[in-house]
């Protein structure tokens, strides 16, 4: 019995470092990532992409997607903080992994990168569909473009398309413009209009369409033009992030190093923009950019420093909060002019934009409304590419006590004057009536 207890203790101590690798708001890049592949050759054919992650401090665990020992959690604790699913053809995952396990992983606040190709299975399609992305259902279909494709001295493949129509967002793709167009060969997908959380990151050109290049085009394609999304991202309400690509080759060494020349253009780039595009996008997916935190939420009366248990109607108060953004290495002050606070009871009685000191401190002063009850200070900050901030702090507001009212109310001076003038007039009238003959 004692030996069993010692063995259990040692196993817990062994697993503790693994569990401690979980995502921490104080250190967002301390991450352990599971990479699932359907062929271990992907580890070498996509080695540049994986090296960019390890160079940034990520710990990658490579496993075959059908490994019977696969598990995302143990003893109720997740073993990984992110998942890269580079197994488009896998029909079912090994171990305890299935569709619901992957979705629960994301619902628990973890990140996911998913890549597809023409062999994409129903499992991969279902995962993408639950994230708001619908792949073209036509088996064998590829994105084809006869005007925006890559040309070389030996070949011109209209399924190897060139795109630089990327989302205009510094927080998602970084502040540096793409140095070269992105190469893409893969399947098209569209965004579910009912899902407001999914964003198109890389779009096809207006002349593109989705079809099987080996079959006759007997009917109009279902997906055409700029409605085709090549790469999309999702930021869930719990701030989990998902990247969905219709091309596994997008991440390959071959595409990273390949020169690019667009049809009809005389400009040839020494290498594609894939490495820059994928690296910057992966920084966003794994919270190295656009990750906000709010600390030191304070409120007090003007001229005081301590936080009261309640406010009185018409009190003047100050509200402040510090907001920082993770840079990948440390926290820096977040600078924005659109952070607002609500003084809320059933509906916002006060809505104020906070001013900042360029050092992360946001503050505002306002007067408590002439309504008593239980109020809340609320900040609901949601911007594209940034993790959402949802702050609330409850505080009661009371009316004046009986001994706190002013002795003489300025607004009542006319009524005071009317009363005393009536008394004076009555006194004069009485004297006149009694003594005047």
Beta fraction of the residues?
25-35%
Please, what is the CATH homologous superfamily of the largest domain?
Answer: Class I glutamine amidotransferase (GATase) domain
User: Main β-sheet: number of strands, strand sense, barrel status?
Assistant: 7 strands, mixed
The number of distinct structural domains comes to 3
Q: Report the top-level CATH class of the largest domain.
A: Alpha Beta
Question: Layout of helices and strands, plus pairs?
Answer:
Elements: H1 2-19, E1 32-37, H2 42-45, H3 47-55, E2 59-64, E3 73-74, E4 77-78, E5 82-86, H4 99-107, E6 111-115, H5 122-130, E7 133-135, E8 142-144, E9 149-151, E10 156-163, H6 170-173, E11 182-184, E12 189-191, E13 198-203, E14 209-211, E15 229-235, E16 241-245, H7 253-257, E17 260-261, E18 268-269, H8 274-285, E19 291-301, E20 311-312, E21 316-326, E22 331-333, E23 340-345, E24 347-353, E25 355-356, E26 361-367, E27 373-381, E28 389-398, H9 413-435
Parallel strand pairs: 1-2, 1-5, 5-6, 6-16, 20-28
Antiparallel strand pairs: 3-4, 7-12, 8-14, 9-10, 10-11, 13-15, 15-16, 17-18, 19-21, 21-22, 21-26, 23-24, 23-27, 25-26, 27-28
């Amino acid at each position: 019995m004692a030996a069993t207890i010692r063995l259990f203790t040692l196993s817990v101590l062994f697993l503790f470092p693994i569990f401690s690798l979980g995502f921490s708001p104080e250190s967002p890049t301390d991450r352990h990532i599971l990479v699932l592949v359907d062929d271990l050759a992907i580890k070498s054919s996509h080695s540049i992409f994986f090296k960019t992650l390890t160079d940034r401090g990520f710990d990658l665990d490579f496993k075959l997607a059908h490994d019977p020992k696969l598990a995302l959690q143990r003893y109720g604790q997740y073993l990984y903080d992110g998942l890269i699913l580079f197994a488009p053809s896998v029909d079912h995952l090994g171990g305890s992994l299935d569709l619901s396990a992957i979705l629960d992983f994301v619902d628990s606040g973890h990140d996911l990168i998913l890549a597809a190709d023409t062999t994409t299975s129903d499992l991969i399609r279902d995962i993408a569909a639950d994230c708001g992305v619908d792949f073209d259902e036509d088996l064998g279909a590829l994105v084809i473009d006869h005007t925006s494709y890559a040309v070389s001295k030996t070949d011109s493949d209209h399924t190897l398309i060139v795109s630089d129509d990327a989302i205009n967002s510094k927080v998602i793709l970084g502040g540096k413009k793409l140095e070269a167009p992105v190469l893409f060969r893969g399947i098209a997908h569209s965004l579910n209009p009912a899902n407001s959380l999914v964003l198109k990151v890389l779009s096809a050109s207006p002349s593109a369409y989705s079809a099987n290049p080996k079959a006759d085009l007997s009917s109009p394609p279902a997906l055409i033009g700029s409605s085709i999304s090549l790469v999309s991202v999702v930021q869930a309400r719990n701030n989990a992030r998902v990247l969905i690509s219709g091309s596994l080759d997008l991440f390959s060494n071959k595409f990273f190093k390949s020169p690019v020349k667009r049809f009809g253009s005389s400009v040839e780039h020494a290498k594609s923009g894939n490495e820059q595009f994928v690296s910057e996008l992966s920084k966003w997916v794994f919270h190295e950019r656009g990750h906000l935190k709010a600390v030191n939420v304070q409120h007090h009366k003007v001229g005081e420093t301590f936080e009261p248990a309640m406010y009185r109607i018409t009190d003047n108060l100050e509200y402040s909060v510090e907001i920082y953004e993770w840079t990948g290495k440390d926290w820096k002050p977040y600078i924005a002019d659109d952070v607002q606070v609500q003084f809320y009871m059933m509906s916002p009685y006060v809505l104020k934009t906070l001013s900042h000191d360029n050092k992360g401190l946001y503050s505002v002063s306002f007067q408590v409304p002439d309504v008593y009850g239980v109020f809340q200070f609320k900040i609901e900050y949601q911007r594209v590419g940034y993790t959402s901030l949802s702050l609330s702090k409850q505080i009661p507001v009371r009316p004046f006590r009986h001994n706190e009212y002013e002795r003489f109310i300025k607004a009542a001076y006319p009524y005071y004057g009317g009363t005393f003038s009536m008394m004076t007039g009555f006194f004069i009238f009485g004297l006149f009536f009694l003594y005047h003959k």
